[in-house]
UniProtKB/TrEMBL annotation, chain A:
Keywords: Cell membrane, Cytoplasmic vesicle, GTP-binding, Hydrolase, Lipoprotein, Membrane, Nucleotide-binding, Phosphoprotein, Prenylation, Protein transport, Transport. This is small monomeric GTPase. It comes from Mastacembelus armatus (zig-zag eel). It holds the Pfam family Ras. Its EC number is 3.6.5.2. GO terms for biological process: protein transport; Rab protein signal transduction; retrograde transport, endosome to Golgi. One of its GO terms (cellular component) is phagocytic vesicle membrane.
UniProtKB/TrEMBL annotation, chain B:
This is TBC1 domain family member 15. The keyword Amino-acid biosynthesis does not apply. It comes from Mastacembelus armatus (zig-zag eel). Keywords: Acetylation, Cytoplasm, GTPase activation, Phosphoprotein. Residues 619-656 are annotated as: Disordered.
Amino acid sequence: MTTKTSLLKVILLGDGGVGKSSIMNRYVTNKFDAHLFHTIGVEFLNKDLEVDGHQVTLQIWDTAGQERFRSLRTPFYRGSDCCLLTFSVDDNQSFLNLGNWKKEFIYYADVKEPEKFPFIILGNKLDVTERQVSTEEAKQWCQENGDYPYYETSAKDATNVAVAFEEAVRRVLAMDERTDHLIPTDTVKLHRKPRSAATCCS
Amino acid sequence: MAAESVHKVLFEHEGVFIQPSSDEDAITQDLLVSGSLRIIDRDGEIIVEYRPLEDTVDPSNMLCAGKDSSSVVEWTQCPGDRSQQLLETQHSYETEWDMVNAVSFRKKPCTNGEGSMNHSHERSRWAFTFSVGDLRSITVREEGWTFLICKLKDSSSLPALHFHQGGSREFLDNLRRFALLTESLDDETCLLLSTPNKTLSQSFENLLDDNNFGIVHKFRKDPYVTTLGGFSKVTNYLFDALRGAEEQHQRPPEEVADLLGEVIPGLEINQQEEPGFEVITRIDLGTRPQVTRREPLSVEDWAKYQDPEGRMINISQLKQAIFKGGLYHAVRKEAWKFLLGYFPWDSTLEERKALQRTKTDEYFRMKLQWKSVSEEQERRNSRLRDYRSLIEKDVNRTDRTNRFYEGIDNPGLVLLHDILMTYCMFDFDLGYVQGMSDLLSPILYVMENEVDAFWCFVSFMDQMHQNFEEQMQGMKNQLIQLSLLLRLLDLVFWNYLESQDSGYLYFCFRWLLIRFKRELSFQDVLRLWEVMWTGLPCQNFHLLVCCAILDSEKQKIMEENFGFNEILKHINELSMKLDIEEILQKAEGICLQIKGCKDLPHSISGILGFDTNVCGSNAEDSGSPGPRPRQRQDACSNGHLRESSSHNSCSVAFIS
């Protein structure tokens, strides 16, 4: 196994106000500010970490969620290694919009094989008491849309935030492993079972 | 002789400099020779040729070059076309391009056109040629601009080629059609040449051989670090070759930039297909005048500008005073209503009271409209529901550390919410767009009154409306205008940004969308805005504010060789670290500096509103250029301003 440091680009997408910036800030600076400004334009933060012996620099991109900013947001999708689709468990609409976000990402990131791209789903604001989206509903969506990993997070009390980013890294590395071993021909199609990605890294 | 043989010019770029009398590494401000660089196919042999354009020049001549107006390309528009009107009547992307089509340009004859190959007369002693096959290596250096040091196989060295007007990448790109360029193992800025008799694609197969994989691997490992400085396209090129071989890798930011270029048409600065087609003008900006700021205007000062009935008098002097010093806070509540246009300057106190009564009724009528929508109704009105939902979220995330909005259930928050909701009823098509709460918050803070704040906000939104519209045309226009200004003011820096795929100035997005609201402390935002609302000292002063900030940051950005991502990050992180008085001082200085320039291109004077006579005598030249007008470059060897390339011409035309 190599010891190179890889730069991985992950991008947080989801409706306005679901907590994308808060998740990023919790993970990178371990701080939470309930009254953080909403994001204008795009921002990113870097974080170094080690996952399963790999040195990785995560470059986490955060965008403005409103529809209006789409044309100036989507160019930044290019080159993403992983996409964290985020909704808020107390906002059903943000959950219903996951599919649109996924579609927008695949289209603008120009993903070659969308069915293989590592998406991770985050249901944020686990700390709030009044949920509108149940865990079962969310899991079912993930199951039906590509067997994506699902994490219920709270940027406020730090629940599952680091775990989710680490999983993102694993997924990307697993993709890397697979393509490193398989010289790209059509044979990769034989290995499209999504689950295989999770195990080949251990 | 070249004139007799069969040759084809494959590449041509002007504005390449050599310094014959100095050594390559020390950039002494000695003699500068400017000329053009060509790649020529001469009977099948690929030749690189450098020939000086005209007289040798020294740097002092370069700085006062504006007197040679023959090299200035004048942009003209069809008669009757007023740029303002055009901007306002624009509804779609298509109309924008229609308009571009209607714009033409006039150019002066160039002294170095295609026929120059046959001109053997003025061949000065600085000309040189060599065969690509004799070339051993090219070293790429950055000094705010790119320069290339070519070494031949017989170990002789040629004068370094300084690309003061860009074009080094295009040169190398073209060279790569005939030779394989690989990074030297012990010096990453040094490119070794080999000229296999194979096609380019075969060359890349060589690259992927085991022997060469180290190089490739190095690129792959950290493509985001632009080790080659402005030379990133070469790495990207290699990268593209690898793409087929390995699916998972980082794509260069260049791709992002290319996409941004599609979003902001008219700024396709990196897409020069024909590098020869460049127009170069030289502008002498002169020195930047030093200006001083003054004390803010006090309540007593303000009262002096009022007649007994309450009309404001000496308005231009008053505006000048506000521009130079801003307002003490106690004056703001009244003065802002005038500055924003809610109160007419010549209204009496009585008239204003009557106006406020009317406006109060009107406000509450609209407020009642959304207030009286039942839950049932809202369920069937997705747009209202979406507006409300986002307003609720954003109000909770706007200036919450400000006393006026801090804590839970602060009345300030309710007012912010209600005014934004009422604005949705005032302009339902626009509704609520993120960023609007940032624009309202300082106004409400100053007004401390729901109705006054609403109408002042409406006035401010009149100015900012285009920023928030569906196509974000206001943002796109401003980015293009800013790019033009920056290019005039600082070609070296502009070229640097371009070399880092940042010529679109995307990193200024937040500055422009909400007029520096997030960049400055709350009190400084109040100061900047009141200064801007005077409309002084020129139109679009906020773009000069951008230039002033960038002027302070350019050294760091270039010295540390920031790439696309680092520039974005650096600019984002300037937030709350800026000094407003310093910025205003510099921005005003820049304005005076540009104003004092005689040979200002129309594009620039149009942006800043210095153009009172539009069109004038050049209007008859509004021929019929195609959708992408191309033009020969003008013969100007040492220009400070690259006015436009073939694509840029669209953007220049657009605002001229």
